[in-house]
Fold each of these.
Amino acid sequence: MEKRALGEIRVHQRQDGLRTYSLRFRVNGKRRSITLGTDAEGWSDRRAERKLEDVLAEIRVGMWRPPAPPEASDEREMTFHEFASRWWAARKGELRHKTQLDYEWQLQKHLLPFFADYPVSEIDLPLVERYREDKLIERERVRAAAEAGHPIRDKRGQRRMPMSNGSINKTLVTLAQILESAVERGLVDSNPASGRRRRLKTSKPVRRHLEADDLKELLSVAAEMDRTSPRYRIGRRPMIAVMAKSGLRVTEMCMLRWRDVDVHHQRLIIGHAKTDAGVREVDLSLDVMEELMTWRASCKTSDPDGFVFATVSGRPRDKDNVRQRVLGPVLRKANALREQRGLAPIAQVSPHALRRTYISLLIEAGAPLPYVMRQVGHEDSRTTLEVYAQVQQRLNRDQVHQAFDDLLASAGEQAEVPTEGREKMSSSTVSASFGDAEFSVTEGSEDTRGPRKWSTEAK
């Protein structure tokens, strides 16, 4: 009896939300597979089942043949979609997961919807300029709809936010990278997306960090909110303390587990980070260790694999949760109290501002720059040096202000110098300035109400 041909349908859920359908079966003892397509192309479970039935029927009667490979086409006729897909497939493996998601967001949400069907050889400067103009028009449309109280939402129902100049520039940089590859292959003569003229003007973001007294106030308010919270304590104070006194990135703090807290050596073990330099051991002060141990004693569980700052369900927090449920409420409460005392509010505080606060405090305490870089996991010294310059500017400012105050304070003593002494000082000063030149007060100089006129005729 002939053995019945069998096969299966395989469905792959992609990160962009699409589902890819494929078939897997055996022919003459060899495993074969066929990719059918995505649900966006009309494939469904039912359609895939019918296709599998057709394939198995052909196998049983010996008529099945492998699909012919696609005919090689002239690369100059490739669409941007085809070329960008190849470019991305070749580069994707070199990048970290979060970077991959960022590139895929740029391609799927912005570049492909505009350039997908254009042949690569036809993408020129006017087309790139039109893409940039369309993004600016789209931004104004999203902004106007939000101001009118009818925000535009995406397919998932999430509110769309207007793109900043920096985000638009980011997509232009990615477009330039793709077209640069096309230039190297000889598909286009020049790269129409390269050059600073294609970019929109952006303002340098203000990088803030807290002063020591502002940090102390935030910690005090956070502790009070934890103590009086009607619900369970979420650890506002220890979270702020860890970010501001150890320099962890917000994602590093969210993913921190109790096994990463080395109590004996007074340090944190960061095993997964944004960069290779981010994988590190962070020295902790006794103050931070006490914060962590106090928090651990108040937690319901101290499982070594548990997250240090978990949610009620035991899952790790994310950066949005920290901003909205930790920093935001604490900052609003602190500023309300400051307003009652007639003090200026503390400027907007982000998790990264707390990280920069730690860097500034280390530098002000005299820590060497290489040690600071190792503590915070910086590969590039530019960020560390930027904070260093700000700290030095503040220290120099304090010194200059103190010297200025001392100068004003000494002005009262100089006012007591006798008239004769002032005349002698004035004569010696002018003599030192003009040498042997003669100065004289013009006629009518006894009237001290007007400006003096100096004559510097040499003898």
Note: The domain at 212-394 is CATH 1.10.443.10 (hpI Integrase; Chain A).
Amino acid sequence: MSEPEQKAPAPDEKPKPKGGSGGKGGGGPGRPPQPGGAGNKASQREPGSPGRAPLLLALAALVLAIALAVAGFFIWHDLDRLAGARLQDQQQVEARATGLEGRLDDMARRMDGIQGEVERQLDAARREQQAALERLQQTQQAVERSVSQLRAQLGRGQDGWLLAEVEYLLRIANQRLQLQRDVGTALAALRAADARLHDLSDPGYLAVREALAREMTELQAVPVPDTGGLALKLASLEGRVDELRPAGARYLSAEERAGEARDPLTARDWREIPGIVWQAVRRLLVVRSHQEPATPMLPPEQEYFLVQNLRLALETARLALLQAEAQQYRTSLEMARDWLERHFDADHPATASMANELHHLLRQEIRPELPDISTSLRLLRQRLPDPAGPAVDEPVAPGATVDESATPVEAQP
């Protein structure tokens, strides 16, 4: 410890004389300190001496620099190792990312295919569902119409039933007249409908009754052919074909072709003798002029075909008559008439009788012009109430709805 740092004497203590023997570094008492003694050595060993401090600082800086260099080397080495590892990891990550991208692309393509297939299946299912829904709606509408019709029929009054019966009769009359040309049935149906309207006693249907009266008058004026009688007559002609004699089937002398008969010459008085003599002389020499060639005789097999052809023409005419085909009927009769006049003996009584009957059949009108009887039905439908609504005799209830799409149900008479 240096001298300046020595403790101060206590207050009770007396200061010792400096030159005493009790001091460590001096001589005897009363001697002054010598230069270069122990006191100077002590002062040179002080740690705060300015001579050794720069050296220590330089040494410390060198050690610090070496430590920093070593530490920097190790740090650089670690950083380089970490950068290489990071680059390797990055490359691995990029490789994995590339593989994942390929897988993702494959999965995306698969998903697109699956999505397209699912969409097609959904579209097909949607179309089937839409078709089923439409069928269900149509069925529902049909059921609603049937229920509305049933409700209308159950709630229909007596007048409603009469009007439905009149409409049915008028439709029957139109169908029979237009499709089957049945004038009798159509006229009977019109008369029955007029009787129902008469029982109804509703002045609102007077226009319908006027149209009915006009149509019945027109039907009564239609010439109705006797189809059954004409068919029987044609069948009778077919049965008489075998009685005909074909032309050329028998040889005729000149006198028979000329229609002359050799009557015996007799005289009732002597005054008739010259005339008888003159007629006998004229018969000795006869000169005739034939403009037409002689008809050759036919063999039996050709006679059979002539007869069968005539029978076939008559049968065709009868079928056309039953089917009301006027043109075919007339054509077949004209063919039979021409065949009869050309290939059969005109002088034979059966041939002449059949020719007359064929001319009579040709004058018959088997398909007369028919009038239009739809006016009364059209007027009646204009006057008929809504069939899907309430009954004719019943008022509409408050808040009730009417189904306009319902169609009327045919009423059977």
Note: The chain has a mean pLDDT of 75.
Amino acid sequence: MWMGLRTGITRAGVAALLAALVVALVPVVANAEDASEPPPSPATTTTTITSPPPSTTTTSTTVPDDGEQETPPAADDGTTDLPPNPAPDQTEPETVEPTPPPPPKKKIFFTPVKRIDAKRDIVFPIVGKTRFWGGFGDCRDNCQREHFGVDILTYGWKGLPVVAAQDGTVTKVTYDVGKAGCSIRIRGRDRWQTRYIHLNNDTPGTDGTGYPCPAPGIEVGSKVTAGQIIGWVGDSGNAEDGQPNIHFELRTPGGYPVDPYKSLRAARNIEYEWLPQDMAGTLTILSGASQPQDSTMAIIVDAREAGRLIGRDATSSTYNAPVLAIDRSDPTPTILDLQRLGIQRVVVMTEGRDRWIEELVGPYVLVAETSGFPRISEDAMSLMPDEDLSIVFGDQQTGRFTTVISGAVDRLPRSYRTTYESYIDTHRSVVLTSSARGSYNLGVRIRNRPSRNADRSLLWWNTADGWIGTALLDDIPDSGIAYLTERMATPWTLTFLESLKRYPPMPVWRSS
């Protein structure tokens, strides 16, 4: 009985609950139907709000004549009304500059050459301070043609030496023709080609033609060696109105252009320094930079006679021991060098009969022998009581400067020996061999340039005393002594110095 009553009550409650839900859903359905109706006409807006208990309110809104429209009221559906729209910002908007359109691309009227990745073993073609960047493939003449090389600039200076980048044969020379102006082509033994364009043809100190171009003796069929001077930096051809430079090209045996940038970056440079023309001053610099070595022997000369070290008739002299110059009025620096280098025995070289050198150095070292300066001899002459010191002479040939080579010359690679021996046999040279490597950065290095404020009306010469300016081409200052360590005595550097002696001295100048 209780189970039946419980079931009946439950069923009646469920029925009442469903009826209440139906009554509550009627307003919601009505609002959904109103929302699906199309919007009222623009002139009048009618809004009907239905909420329990069922009632209806109608509001009419008219658009103002001034074009501003009121915000219509929101439907009261039991939700919270949104806050009114915030007032518009009264500050002036930030002005944004329009982005300019990209410049139109240049129309290319040529077909770019195929890029070949190659790096050649070459000598850098200019001796001096330079700068360059990759310009292979750039547009030229409004993209009418392609740039097939790299322009090597010299900071506005003309007259720097241009050298052959490889051994080979000259196959073409132009003197003042077309865009190239004065130019040279060299074909190597493997038939690869190097080209040098815009060589100088101006009289030094001017921008007017009249100077021999290329270097004397360079013509079609000439054999050249890497490092040999073939011309000088200029602005001939279509570089006349631009910066002095050398347009350098590298081409395959078939004449196909190759980007030379990598080859130039890895190229071998010509390196040497200028030391004072006074041999005594040079010896003082070298002895001061020398380090203690295996030999305990040395040569001492009177500073006033140091220029005789080469010998009266000899071209070159080789000394297998340090050579020191002593000044009678101030011998202290030489004596200190003897002690610092650990010298125990010396050979005194002098033409005088006065024995003041022996008296000054005798308390510090053993004077093993006193001798005059060398003269020409067929055989090596030993001036020492042992084999630590020998002097070797070559044939006579004069030059406009002396070369001093210092350091571990015996360590020169075998491939360098032929050029080295040929050079010291035919050029005025002093070789100071030792067990230690030669010191560098002792003088004025060749890879520099006059100052930015240098007088442009003068001709400038690189010397041991720095850059010297003169007004006349014939007013040539002494360059000094060319100094090399055993690491600088490369075939290409010796070849350059040999050709430097062959030609008249060339200054550098700026014509604009």
Note: The first helix runs from residue 2 to 35.
Amino acid sequence: MNFNGFYFDELWDIIVVGAGPAGLTAGFFGARGGHSTLVIGSLYDSHLARARTVNNFPGIDEFVGIDFLFKLKDQVEQWNGQLLDGEVVSIETKNGRFIVQIKTQGVISTCQASTVVLSMGTLQTRLMVPGEREFLGRGVYYCALCEGYLIRDKTVVVYGEGVALSSTTLWLADLAKSVLCLALTEELDGDKNLLSRLKSIENVEVRTNVKLQKILGENKVQGIQFMDRKTRAIETLDTEFVFIESRTVPAIQFAKTLNLALSSEDYILVDRSQHTSLAGVFAAGDITGGFKQVIKSSAEGAVAVLSASDFLKRRGTSARQLISERTPDNFGLPDLASVPEQSESIFTYLYNNLHFAAKYRKAQLDPEPLILLHAFHDINAVLVTGKYCPECYNYLPLVAKLSLNLPTWAFSVVSVEEEGVIEQFNIKHIPTLILSDSRGIEIGRKILSLIPKSSSLEREIYLMISKAQREHKIV
């Protein structure tokens, strides 16, 4: 099934559930590590998206939460990872794979994964006070970032607990005429810098140790009723907007269906490698408990995917197994059994990477120089690539398609991660394409990332061979 260019029923190396700092970092490390990686979720569902100011991340003075998430998203896509703004409905195990059902714009579709990283974070609980459900969307909101634009020059109430309450108050203070921050706890939560900034803002009033009792109104919010927990005094206040930052609980719906081990507080239990109690399932971020910090979530996301990568290597799924489980047309790839011998090396490499498979379908050859290349025979072409090389992802599918169009040539691919490759081929940059004749004498080499946009791979190869011919390097 194709949905806006995204192919369902695929087999992915890694599916990440959740698009917060843990999930996006996991997606980045998975894609950068050469694994077919899919991140499912919305950036706006992350609690970090609501943070107006974050200044406790090493190496960065200060950033806005949603800006940081979009930078992570860009990094995932830069390394050919996929992001899907959808909702995971269910995760099941079948024949050693994970079957993931996804709801996107009302349509339910299915993907398969060899490993899964759970990073859904925590869910905000409902207060269960009169008026909360009735006025939802009509003055009662849970996302200041999403609905904050409604409150310009208005009087706003923010109620709840935790660091999120302080962060949301700071965010809304830039937009609203005045903000009343009502904390359930005796003190506001947050670091010294955050609390100091709140105290210095003139349009913010903070009341602590209070309990919201009712949200008042008829067709929309018109006010609130709250109680001072110490004096038991009850007060009412006129307002049209109430933003709620209530207690959070871990989002463990899939943990329960997969029978994962949980802590006494319902957080997913993991070991030092972020592995859960079920082989192939990893967890990262707030869903594992502990300190709720961006750096902790990002670090766990990285560890989870590095561990998933090791898990995939130990299991060693073959290329033939992978290709048999992909989409009916194998992403446009020829059947592995039908690939000519001269192309076997490069296609085996291609079949083991969904990034390459997805780009193979779109790879277009330059017809004019391709015709000219047919005049040359018995050329050996070696593509030197690497796992952490975006340009390698771009050129390998193109070289693979070229190999099928030049049947008298022999194509192969080697990785700089392999022992001795750098020294053997004297590699300075990747990707590098090295051509040699039937005697093994090098004709020439080309750093593919330096090919100008006005040219093409086929044209550069033809120019390289023509030059060698003029210099009598080709017999």
Note: The chain has three domains: 2-123+249-317, 140-246, 333-470.
